[in-house]
Design goal:
The complex is a heterodimer.
Chain A (H helix, E strand, L loop, with lengths): L2 E3 L3 E8 L4 H10 L4 E10 L1 H10 L2 E4 L4 H6 L6
Parallel strand pairs in A: 2-3, 3-4
Antiparallel strand pairs in A: 1-2
Chain B lengths: L2 H26 L4 H18 L5 H18 L7 H24 L6 H31 L9 H23 L8 H12 L4 E6 L12 H6 L4 E8 L16 E7 L3 H7 L7 E6 L18 H13 L2 H14 L5 H15 L4 H13 L5 H9 L4 H5 L5 H11 L1 H25 L6 H18 L4 H16 L3 H13 L3 H7 L18 E2 L12 H4 L22 H30 L4 H29 E3 L1 H4 L2 H12 L3 E6 L4 E3 H22 L3 H6 L6 E10 L2 E8 L6 H10 L5 H6 L2 H5 L23 H10 L3 E7 L3 E9 L4 E9 L2 E6 L3 E8 L4 E3 L2 E6 L2 E7 H4 L13 E9 L2 E7 L1 E9 L13 E6 L5 E5 L1 H4 L1
Parallel strand pairs in B: 7-9, 14-23, 18-20
Antiparallel strand pairs in B: 1-3, 1-4, 2-3, 4-5, 6-8, 9-10, 10-12, 11-12, 13-14, 13-21, 15-19, 16-17, 17-18, 19-20, 22-23
The chains are: A alpha/beta, B alpha+beta.
C-alpha cells in the first residue's frame, strides 16, 4: 500500500497512484484534523495533489525530495 | 524503419494524393455526396493508421480534419473554398511530417506548435460553420440543435478561455503577491541576461486527463531547471464531499530555464493544454520590501539619473552602494537600489532601464519596469522620455545658473533628511536580535550626516541618546531624537516643494496593460477573424521544388507477370547462343566465331540471370502476409473450442514468391485448424496430463538455401500411429503386410494419403471438405513437400518445404524413345547406370540394389505407355534416374541422360491441362518444346 492510514495520520510512501485519490479524500473528510506524512514519498499522482490542495491537510513530515517539497509549498500554513 | 511504418508511409502518400485530388474535384462539384464520403473515408483511414504510431502531431491534425469532413459530409458545415484551403494546408503539413519521419524516423518537436495551430484553425472553421448552419437551422425550422453549441456558447467558451488565460498571467506577474523572492528573481534575471531563455509555463490539464492515464503532476515535474513553481486549483471547491477527485482542476505554473525543445518534448502529447512564453529579463526586476515615504530623497535620485544618463556608471554605483549602506536592507528603496546595481553590473549600457528603475524611487510607481521602458523606448531621447514633463538636464542647467551654492546646500539638506528619515524607519521596525547593532548603526549614520551638514552641535545629543538607548535596550531615545530632528525641518513634501529641482508629479503615466511577456508563439487564428489571415501555411507541395517522391511503386501484378514472361523468353533466347556456337563450329567450321559467340553468351547469361533474380525479388512477399491472419483465427477457434492457446509466430519476414505465398494460404489455415482441433487438448485434459493448461502453437518460417521451410508445431496429444495404421488398413489404403511393416513415422504420414479421412478424426471445424491429402496436393502443386512428425502425448510437428520461387525450374533432360523429357532437379536423387546383370525381379517387378537398399525400377516407356523397351548403352547398362517420391527412392529407367537446364515452366492449359504425369512444358534454346515430367503423378 502506498498509503498507510493510521489513527490521525496518513503515511504516504514511494509512488502514490491515481487509484488512491478517492480513498485519500474520504479519509481526509472523515479525519478533518488528520495529518499527512510525506517522509518516504517520491511522487504523488496529480489526482492526489488535487485532493491535498482542496483539503489542505496539515503536513507532519515534508518529503525528503526537495523538488517535490517545493511543488507542495502551497500546503504550507 | 520497420516494415509497418514503411507501409504506412507509402500508403499515406497515396491517401494524401487521393485527398488532394478529391478536394480539387470537390471544388468543381461541391454538392457531390459520393465525393464527400470518399474524402471522409480517406481522411478517416489516414487518421486511424497514424494512430498506430507515436505521431501525436500528425494524428491531431488528421483528427481535426476528419471531424471537419464528417461535418461537411453530413451537411452540418457548408463546403467552401476556405475549407479546401485549410484541408489542403493540413494535408501539406501531414506530408511534411511524413518526409521528416521518412528521413529521421520521428517528428521533430518544433512541429507540435504548428500542429496545435493547424488543429485550432480547423476546429475554428468547424465551430464557425457549425454555428452558422445552426443559426440557419433554428431560423428556418425553429429547432434548436442540441448537439452543437450555438454561436453564443462557442463565443462565450472562447472568450472565457482567453480571459482566463489573461487573468492567469496578470495574477502571475503583475500582482504584488507574486512571490518571487529577490534571490530567485535575481537568479532568473541573471540567467536571462546571460543568454538563457526563461520560460513561463502554464499547464492546465484537461479535466478528464486522469482517465487517459495521464499524470499532469508527473509531467510537470519532468521539466528541468524549474526555479519557481506553483500549483493552484481553477475553482474553489464548494463542497469537499461532492468533489470529483477524478476531474482535474489543477493548474501548474512555473518558471524554468529549460529550452523550448525540452518543453515541447515533455508536452508533446498535450500541447494544447500548455502555454509557454519566453519572459524577458526585465520582467524579473521587481523590487519588493517595506514601503517608506522618504527613504531616498529626490535630489539623490536626480543626481543618480544625471550620472546614469551621462554613462558615469562608476559614480552612480558608488553612490548607490553608499546609500545602501546607509539604509535598511528590507526597505523597498533598498531593493530598488540593489536591482539597479545588478543591472549596472550586467547591463552597464542599458541606461533607460537603470534610469526608469531609479525614477520609480520618486514616483513610487510599482508598475512593471518593462512596460515603463517599453513605453519610453518608443521615443528616441532617453533623457526626455525619462522625464517627459521636466527635462532633467535643462532643469539642472537652469538652477546652476541661479545659485550653485544653494543647489548644493539644499541638495545636501534634502539628502540629510532622507537619511534621517530612513533611520526613523529602521528604528521603527519591529525589535529583533540585531537591535543593538541597529541602534549603533543608526547613531553612526546620524553623526555622519550631521558632520556632513556641519550641524556639529547636534552630535552630542546623538551620542547622549545613543547611550540611553543602549542602556535601556530600546530604540526609543534615539527615535525621539530623530523625530525631533525631523520636526525641526519642513516635512518631506515641503522639501520637495522647496527644492529647486522641480519634480514632476507624474512621470510615467502607465498607458496600457502590462506587457510583460514576449509572445513566442505566433498568435493563431482567433475566433471571429478570417481564418486565412492568421492561419499558418505550409507551402503548397505543388510549388515545392524539392518534392520528395515516394520510393515505393505500386505496380499492377500483370505488369510484373509480363516482365516475368519476357525474361523467360530472354532466357530461352539466350540459351540458343550455345547451339549457335556449336553450329558455327560444326556446320560452318568457323572456330573463332564460335569462341566469340560463347564469350558473348557468358556476358548475356550473367545479365539475364541478374535480371531474373531482380524480378524474382520484386515478386517476393513476406510470409507475414499469411501469418497475420492467424492470431485472430487462433483466438476465435480456440474460444469456440474452449481451449486456451498461445500462438507464437516466428520468422514472419521470411520471403517467398507471391504465388507461393498465396498458394500456401489455404493449406496453412487447414493445418492450423487441424492442430487446434485435434492436436491441442482441452485445458483440463492438459492439466491431467501434467502439461501447462495453455497449449502452445508455434508457426515458424525459415529459409533454407533456396527453399522456405514452414513448421507448425503444437504441444498437443500427438498422433497415435497405431490408430492411423488401423484406419488406413480399414480404408484399404495399406495391405496387411504393410500394416506390419511400416514404421511409425511412415504411418503418421499416412494422414496425407488420398481418401484418408475418418468420421472421428475430422470434425465440422477442420473437415470443410479439405482433407490432409488436399493439403499435400496443394503444396505439391507448387513444388513443395509436406511431412509430419509426431510423438504421442508430446505434440506434432508438421512441416512444409517450399521453393522460394516457381519462376525458374532447374530440370534434367533425359532421353527416351528418341524424345527428350525434363525431370525437375529437386526430385532427382542420383543418376546411375545399372548393368543388366544387377537387375532382379521381385513379384514381376524390376528392382536393383543400390547401396544396400532395394530400389524398384520402372521403365519410362512403360509409364508413358510407349510400346518400346528401354535402350541400354554399349556396355549393356541401363541409365537409371533415381528420384524421390513421397520419401521413397524409385529408379526410372531411361535411354540416356542429357544436360540440366534452367527453364521457365509453363503449366499446360486447355485440353492438355488435364493430362496427368506432366507438370508443364518449356521452350528450349533451339526452339524445341520440352515436356517436363511429374514423377509423382507418373508413378
Amino acid at each position: 500500500m502506498a498509503i498507510e492510514y493510521k489513527k490521525s495520520l496518513a503515511v504516504l510512501t514511494d509512488f502514490v497512484g491515481v487509484e488512491e485519490a478517492e480513498n485519500l479524500l474520504q479519509w481526509l473528510l472523515k479525519n478533518p484534523k488528520g495529518k499527512i506524512n510525506l517522509a518516504g514519498c517520491v511522487h504523488i499522482h496529480a489526482a492526489n495533489l488535487q485532493v491535498f490542495m482542496a483539503v489542505k491537510p496539515q503536513v507532519s513530515v515534508w518529503p525528503a525530495d526537495e523538488e517535490l517539497k517545493r511543488w507542495l509549498t502551497i500546503l504550507e500554513k | 524503419m520497420n516494415a509497418l511504418l514503411e507501409q504506412f508511409l507509402s500508403e499515406s502518400r497515396d491517401f494524401l494524393q487521393g485527398i488532394g485530388e478529391k478536394l480539387m474535384q470537390l471544388e468543381a462539384e461541391p454538392e457531390s455526396i459520393p465525393l464527400m464520403t470518399e474524402l471522409f473515408r480517406f481522411v478517416h483511414t489516414l487518421k486511424g493508421n497514424s494512430g498506430l504510431f507515436d505521431f501525436p502531431e500528425m494524428t491531431r491534425v488528421l483528427h481535426a480534419s476528419e471531424d471537419l469532413m464528417d461535418a461537411v459530409r453530413h451537411g452540418r458545415v457548408n463546403y467552401s473554398q476556405e475549407l479546401t484551403d485549410q484541408l489542403l494546408d493540413a494535408m501539406d503539413f501531414v506530408g511534411i511530417l511524413m518526409d521528416e519521419i521518412e528521413s529521421t524516423g520521428r517528428i521533430g518537436n518544433h512541429h507540435a506548435t504548428n500542429s496545435v495551430e493547424l488543429t485550432k484553425s480547423l476546429r475554428d472553421l468547424l465551430a464557425q460553420s457549425t454555428a452558422h448552419s445552426d443559426e440557419q437551422i433554428s431560423a428556418s425550422q425553429g429547432i434548436s440543435n442540441i448537439d452543437h453549441p450555438s454561436v453564443d456558447q462557442v463565443l462565450e467558451e472562447f472568450t472565457a478561455v482567453e480571459v482566463d488565460l489573461a487573468q492567469e498571467i496578470t495574477v502571475g506577474f503583475s500582482e504584488p503577491t507574486f512571490d518571487l523572492k529577490e534571490d530567485v528573481a535575481t537568479a532568473l534575471y541573471r540567467a536571462a541576461i546571460e543568454g538563457s531563455s526563461v520560460f513561463w509555463v502554464e499547464y492546465i490539464p484537461e479535466p478528464e486527463c486522469f482517465f487517459k492515464g495521464e499524470d499532469p503532476f508527473y509531467l510537470s515535474r519532468q521539466i528541468p531547471a524549474v526555479l519557481w513553481c506553483h500549483t493552484r486549483l481553477q475553482h474553489d471547491i464548494a463542497s469537499l464531499a461532492e468533489m470529483d477527485v477524478y476531474s482535474s482542476q489543477l493548474t501548474f505554473q512555473l518558471l524554468t530555464l529549460a529550452t523550448q525543445e525540452e518543453l515541447d518534448d515533455i508536452f508533446r502529447y498535450v500541447p494544447d493544454q500548455v502555454m509557454r512564453r519566453e519572459i524577458s529579463a526585465l520582467a524579473f526586476v521587481k523590487p519588493g520590501g517595506i514601503e517608506s515615504d522618504n527613504a531616498v530623497d529626490d535630489d539623490f535620485v536626480s543626481r543618480l539619473l544625471e550620472w546614469l544618463n551621462e554613462g558615469d556608471v562608476e559614480r552612480a554605483s558608488h553612490s548607490i552602494r553608499t546609500m545602501l549602506e546607509l539604509s535598511a536592507p528590507e526597505l523597498w528603496s533598498s531593493s530598488v537600489l540593489r536591482w539597479t546595481l545588478l543591472i549596472i553590473e550586467l547591463e552597464p549600457s542599458n541606461q533607460p532601464v537603470q534610469c526608469a528603475l531609479i525614477n520609480t524611487l520618486r514616483t513610487h510607481d510599482k508598475t512593471d519596469l518593462v512596460s515603463l521602458v517599453q513605453n519610453e523606448s518608443s521615443d528616441d531621447i532617453v533623457s526626455e522620455t525619462l522625464l517627459p514633463e521636466v527635462p532633467l538636464t535643462n532643469t539642472l542647467d537652469r538652477h546652476d545658473e541661479v545659485s550653485d551654492d544653494l543647489s548644493i546646500d539644499s541638495g545636501l539638506m534634502t539628502g540629510f533628511y532622507v537619511v534621517v528619515n530612513a533611520q526613523k524607519v529602521v528604528l521603527s521596525s519591529p525589535p529583533s536580535a540585531w537591535l543593538v547593532g541597529r541602534i549603533k548603526s543608526v547613531a553612526a549614520t546620524l553623526i555622519a550626516v550631521h558632520h556632513a551638514t556641519h550641524q556639529l552641535h547636534e552630535i552630542e545629543q546623538i551620542q547622549e541618546a545613543l547611550q540611553h538607548s543602549l542602556a535601556d535596550h530600546s530604540p526609543k531615545p534615539l527615535l525621539e531624537l530623530v523625530e525631533h530632528i525631523l520636526n525641526q525641518v519642513p516635512t518631506s513634501d515641503e522639501i520637495v516643494a522647496s527644492a529647486p529641482v522641480a519634480i514632476p508629479v507624474e512621470v510615467h503615466p502607465v498607458v496600457e496593460e502590462t506587457v510583460v511577456i514576449e509572445e513566442v508563439i505566433e498568435p493563431t487564428a482567433k475566433f471571429g477573424r478570417r481564418v486565412e489571415d492568421a492561419s499558418p501555411h505550409f507551402g503548397r507541395r505543388a510549388e515545392d521544388a524539392n518534392t520528395t517522391v515516394s520510393k515505393t511503386l505500386k505496380v499492377d501484378q500483370e505488369k510484373i507477370d509480363r516482365l516475368m514472361n519476357l525474361i523467360g523468353e530472354m532466357v530461352v533466347a539466350k540459351n540458343a547462343l550455345p547451339y549457335l556456337a556449336n553450329r558455327a563450329e560444326s556446320v560452318f567450321g568457323v572456330r573463332d566465331l564460335s569462341r566469340e559467340i560463347k564469350a558473348q553468351y557468358a556476358v548475356i547469361n550473367r545479365v539475364a540471370e541478374e535480371m531474373q533474380d531482380t524480378i524474382m525479388q520484386v515478386r517476393m512477399m513476406p510470409v507475414s502476409f499469411i501469418f497475420q491472419r492467424f492470431p485472430r483465427m487462433v483466438r476465435d477457434i480456440s474460444r469456440k473450442l474452449g481451449k486456451e492457446v498461445e500462438l507464437v509466430l516466428e520468422g514472419e519476414s521470411t520471403e517467398a514468391d507471391k504465388n507461393i505465398i498465396e498458394a500456401l494460404s489455404d493449406p496453412l489455415i487447414h493445418i492450423v485448424r487441424n492442430s487446434l482441433d485435434h492436436g491441442l487438448e482441452a485445458p483440463d485434459v492438459r492439466v491431467a496430463a501434467g502439461k501447462n493448461a495453455i497449449g502452445k502453437l508455434l508457426i515458424r518460417a525459415t529459409q533454407e538455401s533456396d527453399r522456405v521451410l514452414i513448421e507448425i508445431i503444437d504441444d498437443g496429444r500427438g498422433i497415435n500411429p497405431d490408430v492411423i495404421k488401423q484406419k488406413a488398413y480399414e480404408k484399404g489404403l495399406i495391405d496387411e503386410s504393410a500394416l506390419e511393416r511400416i514404421s511409425d513415422e511412415e504411418a503418421v504420414n499416412l494422414v496425407f494419403a488420398a481418401g484418408f479421412s475418418t468420421a472421428d478424426v475430422i470434425s465440422d471445424l477442420s473437415g470443410r471438405g479439405v482433407g490432409m491429402d488436399v493439403v499435400r496436393s496443394a503444396v505439391e502443386r507448387i513444388n513443395g513437400t509436406v511431412g509430419i512428425e509426431s510423438e504421442v502425448g508430446k505434440g506434432t510437428r508438421l512441416y512444409l518445404s517450399l521453393p522460394l520461387s516457381m519462376a525458374v525450374t532447374n530440370v534434367m533432360i533425359i532421353e527416351s524413345n528418341q524424345q527428350i523429357f525434363g525431370v525437375p532437379m529437386d526430385m532427382v536423387v542420383e543418376t546411375v547406370r545399372v548393368p543388366r546383370a544387377q537387375l532382379s525381379s521381385i513379384k514381376q517387378k524390376q528392382t536393383t540394389v543400390l547401396r544396400g537398399r532395394i530400389v524398384p525400377l520402372l521403365s519410362l516407356n512403360e509409364l508413358l505407355a510407349l510400346p518400346f523397351e528401354q535402350v541400354p548403352n554399349e556396355d549393356d547398362e541401363f541409365a537409371t534416374l533415381v528420384v524421390r517420391v513421397h520419401g521413397e527412392h524409385v529408379g526410372i529407367v531411361v535411354d540416356d541422360f542429357r544436360e540440366t537446364v534452367d527453364i521457365i515452366l509453363k503449366p499446360m492449359t486447355g485440353i492438355l491441362g488435364g493430362l496427368g504425369g506432366f507438370s508443364g512444358a518449356a521452350l528450349l534454346g533451339d526452339g524445341s518444346v520440352l515436356m517436363v515430367l511429374n514423377p509423382r503423378e507418373l508413378i
